[in-house]
Specification:
Elements lengths: L11 E8 L5 E2 L4 E2 L12 E10 L2 E8 L11 E6 L3 E6 L7 E8 L2 E9 L5
Antiparallel strand pairs: 1-9, 2-8, 3-8, 4-7, 4-9, 5-6, 5-8
């Protein structure tokens, strides 16, 4: 039997978001880790599902202690997207309460990205 994946919208960074060839395109959502119910000290995993891509796109997480995260707020590079498929990442344990992803695409990409409490199988 296949596993069903349910995405909680409080944990969703991007939902079929189209990324153009620009620097620091913000994810459509910012996540407040204080409201996620994930325990302190637990590694927080994330998934980026790429459904369309030409070129490459780098992904960084930015974070701060208050809302309205900007691309210059403590940036940490997570991964580079280069093909259709799923990419997994772990948020650094030092991230602050509010987090947002920023994408820099060479050409164009479509992504859905979220946090998950599940480990990769």
């Amino acid at each position: 039997m296949a596993k069903q994946t349910s995405v909680d919208y409080e944990l969703l960074f991007s939902n079929a978001q189209s990324i153009a060839a620009t620097a620091n395109t913000a994810s459509t959502n910012e996540i407040d880790l204080g409201s996620t119910g994930m325990g302190e000290g637990i590694a927080i995993k994330g998934v980026i599902n790429v459904t369309e891509i030409t070129g490459t796109t780098s992904v960084k997480v930015c974070h701060k202690t208050s809302a309205s995260v900007a691309a210059t707020d403590n940036p940490v590079t997570l991964t580079t997207l280069s093909a259709v498929g799923q990419y997994h990442f772990t948020l650094p344990q030092s991230v602050s309460r509010y987090v947002k992803l920023f994408y820099t695409g060479v050409t164009s990409t479509t992504v859905t990205a979220w946090l998950t409490a599940e480990t990769r199988q």
